[in-house]
Recover the amino acids of this structure.
């Protein structure tokens, strides 16, 4: 007890030393408490983001595959292998008491070409003509005619601005073609030869219209019904879920808004959001850029309006701008020149008057979209799939990472995957054998082709006219196929062509056996509530070994790739920071105590003179350090805990998309794990005690004689 | 009758014999070309490959990609050079049958019968995902599209060649900004070609070791019988210089210079092939 009194007295006596050492200990304890809270909370919320959106607690992939599964790691396909016997695997896994559900999946990326606005309209015209729908063809035809007229006006203005001598021949020809397409005679004769006219418009005119859009889509190919029930963050926003067993595509709302929405409308949305955050048009460079783009890219609106819509929009814009200007382009330009005052009114007007008349989303709910992918087999694959609606992962609306995942049905996914079946392999091997092509290595190709004994090979048949060649062909030899024969061969009337390949797919309802029966790339395992991931991994791995499945299990962190590793990076950064702080503390505390020991030589010598043993001196220092650690550690822990409790209650706004993902929602709520305070106190005590060892050793060596000499 | 059969046999066998005959390699280093001569060589290269009538050939394409399955195609290429039209109609494998490309003027369209969609593609389109480009199958327009600079005589294996650098003219859209050609001194054909991106990065190296010389009735009719020759490659080996280890081999077989149906180069015709 007396040692504690002495320790407290010493702390009071050496105020500066106590303040320096105490400050460091407070800071260290604070850092540990806050750091542990951050790591623990990020780990928890990120696990919610990842586990409950796409990964599940555990992912399965083919054992021995070249690449490890990386859900967030990379775009496009990688060599993660294939799982063939999913039905059997699912049945076995779902019999485990730890496992709630197993979801088949595969993650891939594909391209959707939007076509330029005129291409899209001409495609609609072609479809109407092909279908013999004269009424629809007339409606679309009028719109196309208006678009060509607008293009003509546009090019006329350009012609006025451009030096004719510097204009390329292509441009000059383009102007002539657009002029021709704007002649009444062209449209008067349209019905006589619609295909010829459309070929002219498609090849000569459309290329001069606005450039085409291209969407890069990342999607999870999965059993959509199972997916939406197992991943509880999934919730529909627009449209309907894909009907069970049917083909279909669901856009993530984030992707849908960012990539599919009309660009002008999207920019207006962004301006609205930014202004709502308190920004001002005059001072925000990004808003200024969006306004500039909306003004210069007025064609995104004017091209999409037919005659009736044009008149209505003109009237609305003239009223808003209080002008009699008749040029729609100038009206749109003026309308888009927004400021802080008129923006709310114009934003509302845009959505009331203009938005219903334009294609607000390039792909709408119920549309059939064409997805282009490069399959694992290497062949380009293209599929048509119906877009049923949009969804979001609850709380992750603003997250770019979670928002990039769209959902595609498993059967379409398999088509895009283009898995090389034994039949396909055999067909390719046959074609290769028939070709007789000899493989050449890159390094030796030149020598093999042009080296010694080789050289250019020339087949000269120029003395033989085609007629002679035909006459010389033996009657029993296969004749050179004529175009007609080629055409006949390509007709594919026997149902084995690419068209037959896609036949009946759209309306077919697939059974669970069909869904589970085909090849997949990975599978997500969702554990039952309360089951620890480590326990789940042990159970799953045990089953994999027992059943001899060719599978590898990865916990959600490992399966997440770079994102999963992020938590490790945070740990490392925090650990390093704490290490540095403790190292500095150790040195400073040690120096302070050494100084303090030297100052107290007389006191320690006197204590030794009146009978204090060396061990008592040692204990005096240890207790002093302990008291410092407890007092200042507790203060640091209290400050840290208060801060964590405050933000744990009110939340911390996630400042960007990535923070939304890490936080598992728009706000981050840190929480201190139960072991956080004891760990912080223990760490502070250990460091303080280590810092005390050397000064205590010095103090133990002080003799009464030395103390007396010191005083003299 | 006997003479007729002998003649038939000769006419049938002659091309086969010629097929294996290597062109005589030039053993003496040629004199360098001056700029006018270099341009003349390129113009001649274009002219001799140009056919004023129609052209059709069956092709076999094989793409090899490191650590991936080989991808092969049988297709037919149709050309009408007078109208700048080109069409590639895929025949095999089964799942690719009926797919195609159609070039009309500067538009390159891709058609897929499984979706019934036409999509506009660029000059940089990798034909069916291989290392080939549209220009590999189309009429040669080098003098029209590129500025020519002579480098020096250079040996390619055991053969002497003229090495030339071609730089894309302003305003012309092509897959590559620059190319280096090695032209056979004896035949004038392109034996080796290296193509570069605008940044200067080497993108592809291709070899054309086999050529065929055909008689074109339409060309002979237009320019005289002595100018009725059309040269077309028989084999092209393309090596991807960006993704090392990837390559594409193209065999061009059964070239035919007869007239093709008038309505062939239309979307409607290509669509009808898979109907």
């Amino acid at each position: 007890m007396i040692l504690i009194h002495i320790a407290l007295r010493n702390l009071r006596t050496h105020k500066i030393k106590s303040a320096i050492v105490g400050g460091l200990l407070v800071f260290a304890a604070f850092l540990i408490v806050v750091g542990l809270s951050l790591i623990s909370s990020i780990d928890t919320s990120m696990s919610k983001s990842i586990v409950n959106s796409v990964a599940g607690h555990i992912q399965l992939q083919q054992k021995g595959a070249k690449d490890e599964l990386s859900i967030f790691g990379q775009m496009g396909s990688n060599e993660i292998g294939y799982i063939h016997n999913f039905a059997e695997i699912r049945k076995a896994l779902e019999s485990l008491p730890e496992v709630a559900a197993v979801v088949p999946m595969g993650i891939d990326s594909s391209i959707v070409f939007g076509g330029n606005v005129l291409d899209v309209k001409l495609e609609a015209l072609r479809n109407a003509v092909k279908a013999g729908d004269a009424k629809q063809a007339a409606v679309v035809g009028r719109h196309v005619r208006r678009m060509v007229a607008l293009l003509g006006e546009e090019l006329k203005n350009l012609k006025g601005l451009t030096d004719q001598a510097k204009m390329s021949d292509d441009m000059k020809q383009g102007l002539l073609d657009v002029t021709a397409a704007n002649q009444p005679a062209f449209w008067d004769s349209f019905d006589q030869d619609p295909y010829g006219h459309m070929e002219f418009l498609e090849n000569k005119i459309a290329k001069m219209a606005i450039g085409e859009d291209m969407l890069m889509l990342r999607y999870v190919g999965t059993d959509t019904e199972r997916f939406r029930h197992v991943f509880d963050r999934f919730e529909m926003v627009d449209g309907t879920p894909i009907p069970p067993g049917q083909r279909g595509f669901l856009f993530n709302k984030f992707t849908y808004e960012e990539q599919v929405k009309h660009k002008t409308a999207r920019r207006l949305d962004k301006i609205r959001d930014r202004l709502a955050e308190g920004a001002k048009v005059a001072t925000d460079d990004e808003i200024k850029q969006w306004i500039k783009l909306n003004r210069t890219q007025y064609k995104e609106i004017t091209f999409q309006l037919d005659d009736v819509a044009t008149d209505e929009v003109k009237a609305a814009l003239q009223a808003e701008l209080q002008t009699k200007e008749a040029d729609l382009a100038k009206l749109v330009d003026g309308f888009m020149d927004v400021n802080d005052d008129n923006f709310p009114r114009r934003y509302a007007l845009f959505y009331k008057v203009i938005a219903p008349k334009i294609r607000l989303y390039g792909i709408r709910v119920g549309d059939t979209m064409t997805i282009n992918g490069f399959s694992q087999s290497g062949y380009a694959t293209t599929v048509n799939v119906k877009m049923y609606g949009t969804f979001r992962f609850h709380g992750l609306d603003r997250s770019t990472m979670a928002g990039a995942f769209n959902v595609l049905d498993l059967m379409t996914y398999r088509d895009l995957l283009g898995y090389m079946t034994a039949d396909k392999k055999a067909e390719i091997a046959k074609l290769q054998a028939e070709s007789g092509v000899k493989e050449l290595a890159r390094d030796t190709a030149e020598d093999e082709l042009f080296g010694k004994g080789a050289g250019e090979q020339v087949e000269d048949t120029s003395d033989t006219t085609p007629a002679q060649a035909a006459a010389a062909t033996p009657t029993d030899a296969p004749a050179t196929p004529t175009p007609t024969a080629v055409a006949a061969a390509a007709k594919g009337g026997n149902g084995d062509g690419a068209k037959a390949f896609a036949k009946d797919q759209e309306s077919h309802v697939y059974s669970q056996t069909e869904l589970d029966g085909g090849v997949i790339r990975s599978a997500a395992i969702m554990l039952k509530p309360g089951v620890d991931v480590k326990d789940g991994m042990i159970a799953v791995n045990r089953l994999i070994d027992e059943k001899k499945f060719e599978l590898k299990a990865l916990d959600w962190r490992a399966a997440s790739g770079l994102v999963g590793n992020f938590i490790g990076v945070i740990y490392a950064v925090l650990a390093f920071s704490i290490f540095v702080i403790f190292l500095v503390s150790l040195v400073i505390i040690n120096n302070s105590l050494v100084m303090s020991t030297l100052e107290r030589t007389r006191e320690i010598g006197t204590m030794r003179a009146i009978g204090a043993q060396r061990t008592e001196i040692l204990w005096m220092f240890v207790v002093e350090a302990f008291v410092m650690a407890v007092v200042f550690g507790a203060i640091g822990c209290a400050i840290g805990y208060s801060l964590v409790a405050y933000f744990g209650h009110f939340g911390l706004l996630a400042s960007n998309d990535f923070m939304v993902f890490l936080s598992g929602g728009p706000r981050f709520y840190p929480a201190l794990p139960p072991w956080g305070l004891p760990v912080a106190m223990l760490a502070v005590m250990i460091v303080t005690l280590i810092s005390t060892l050397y000064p205590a050793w010095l103090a133990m060596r002080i003799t009464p004689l030395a103390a007396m000499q010191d005083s003299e | 009758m006997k003479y007729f059969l002998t003649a038939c046999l000769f006419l049938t066998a002659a091309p086969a014999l010629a097929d294996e005959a290597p062109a005589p390699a030039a053993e003496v280093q040629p004199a360098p070309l001056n700029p006018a001569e270099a341009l003349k060589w390129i113009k001649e290269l274009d002219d001799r490959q140009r056919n004023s009538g129609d052209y059709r050939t069956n092709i076999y394409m094989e793409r090899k990609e490191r650590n991936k399955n080989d991808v092969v195609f049988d297709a037919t290429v149709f050309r009408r050079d007078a109208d700048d039209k080109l069409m590639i109609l895929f025949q095999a494998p089964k799942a690719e049958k009926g797919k195609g490309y159609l070039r009309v003027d500067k538009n390159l369209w891709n058609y897929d019968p499984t979706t019934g969609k036409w999509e506009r593609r660029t000059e940089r389109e990798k034909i069916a995902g291989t290392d080939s480009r549209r220009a590999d199958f189309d009429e040669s327009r080098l003098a029209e599209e590129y500025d020519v600079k002579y480098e020096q005589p250079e040996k390619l294996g055991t053969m002497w060649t003229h090495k030339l650098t071609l730089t894309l003219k302003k305003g012309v859209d092509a897959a590559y900004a620059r190319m280096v050609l090695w032209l056979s001194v004896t035949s004038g054909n392109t034996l080796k070609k290296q193509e570069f991106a605008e940044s200067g990065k080497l993108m592809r190296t291709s070899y054309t070791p086999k050529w065929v010389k055909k008689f074109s009735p339409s060309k002979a009719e237009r320019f005289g019988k002595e100018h009725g020759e059309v040269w077309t490659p028989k084999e092209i080996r393309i090596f991807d210089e960006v993704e090392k280890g990837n390559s594409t081999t193209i065999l061009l077989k059964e070239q035919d210079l007869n007239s093709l149906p008038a309505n062939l180069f239309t979307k409607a015709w290509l669509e009808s092939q898979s109907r």
Notes: Confidence is low (pLDDT under 50) at residues 469-496 of chain A. The first helix of chain A runs from residue 2 to 13.
